[in-house]
Amino acid sequence: MSLRIALLPGDGIGPDVTYATVEVLKALESKTPELSFEFHEQAVGAAEYLRSGSPLPEEAFEACRAADAVLLGAMGLPDVRWPDGKEMTPQIDLRERLDLYAGLRPIKLYHPDDSPLKGYGSERPIDFVLVRESTEGLFSARLNQADSGGDESRDVMRITRRGAERVCRKAFELARKRRKKCTLVDKANVLPSMVFFRRIFDEVGEEFPDVTREHVYVDAMALFMVRKPDAYDVIVTENMFGDILSDLAAGIVGGMGMAPSGDVGNDCGIFQPSHGTAPDIAGKDIANPVATILSAAMMLDWLGHADPADRIESAVSRVLADPSKRTPDMNGKLGTAEMTAAVIAEL
Ligand SMILES: NC(=O)c1ccc[n+]([C@@H]2O[C@H](COP(=O)([O-])OP(=O)(O)OC[C@H]3O[C@@H](n4cnc5c(N)ncnc54)[C@H](O)[C@@H]3O)[C@@H](O)[C@H]2O)c1
Ligand SMILES: CC(C)[C@H](C(=O)O)[C@@H](O)C(=O)O
User: Which of 46, 202, 240, 286 has the largest CB neighbor count within 10 A?
Assistant: First the structure.
């Protein structure tokens, strides 16, 4: 049976890394009789807004809903904004409308040379997953008027019992399959919403007596991620803290080009690199495709194809074992197409 994949290349380097990843998936398909893909490409993003007036046309949304999974590049351009000053963010609309409450952001160091931190590698691995709540938190204020011309503007952090319970449960379930440690990142020393989140985390944690749990304040986590990233297994946090910390985390394993992600709910999943559209390097064949290729591996795993997913991840890992095989963002000389070809050769 064919897997129906909605393909949303988006803006900037989105198409560069998406089409590179489609090449990898096609190569895998040609070697795997039980695997076949149907790609349904949709125009979504800032360029689509300029063309049609909508960054997420209804037809594209329906195609995402009907697909087995969605593979997305990146969306948004800093100069393309709504009249109120905010950027278009169809990826957030998709998370909210499809109820993709768990943003899974694995952080893994493949080669010691790729980290700005010293002393990490096979002996002392950096290997954790940040689980970002993706449907509420501080982001729930995003649809408020950006600037009403008054003297004040407020963004309210919204945490619901349902939202906190389900993301914490997802994090504990993941930790149970990994090294059985789950860390909540909050700001429960100051914010009432975070005291509430912590209480729910502890309640859900009672269902997982085999998983060690701990709490860390978000400011301290910004320090610990740099000082002792090997201390973490699964980290769960609200939307905005997860947005910020996942970029910091990408920075300790080689940068945004090394950070895959999956936004998953109970029935739908969207897989995309954590990075943006990088307009500074778009269309130059220098974007790092690794984050998107690893996101496609996460997609296959989520679709129940663990073996092909492992084959992609192992191929990436073998390529990265050779420090000369890097794109310019990681001080290498390979272009997007050459890096993609190297992964395909390892498949
Ligand atoms: N998920 C998404 O679609 C997403 C995520 C973040 C930002 N954005 C949007 O992207 C635009 C640019 O945002 P930004 O500059 O803050 O973040 P960005 O992630 O696009 O770029 C940050 C830096 O990382 C580099 N970079 C990012 N991905 C790379 C890759 N694959 N290979 C090599 N270098 C890479 C860029 O060149 C830049 O120097 C904005 O419009 C923003 O809203 C979209
Ligand atoms: C571009 C932006 C809307 C998006 C977010 O804030 O979720 C990005 O930063 C991410 O991490 O996926």
Answer: 46
Superfamily, domain 1-100+266-347: Isopropylmalate Dehydrogenase (3.40.718.10)
**Which residues of the chain are in CATH 3.40.718.10 domains?**
1-100+266-347, 102-145+156-264
- Pocket lining: 76 vs ligand 2, CB cutoff 6 Å: yes
As for the ipTM of the complex, it is: 0.98
State pLDDT tens for residues 50-92: 999 999 999 999 999 999 999 999 999 999 999 888 899 999 9
CA Rg value for the chain: 20
Q: Is 91 in the pocket of ligand 1 (CB under 6 A)?
A: yes
The pair of structure tokens assigned to 326 is: 């890097």
Any atom of ligand 1 within 6 Å of the Cβ of 346? no
Of 260, 89, 96, the C-alpha closest to 163 is: 96
CATH superfamily of 102-145+156-264: Isopropylmalate Dehydrogenase (3.40.718.10)
Strands 212-217 and 36-41: unpaired
Model pTM score = 0.97
Q: Which atom of ligand 2 is nearest to the CA of 87?
A: 3
* Chain Cα centroid distance, residue 21: 15
Give the residue, out of 138, 243, 261, 272, with the most ligand 2 atoms within 8 A of its beta carbon, to mutate for a pocket test.
243
The Cα–Cα gap between 91 and 72 comes to 9
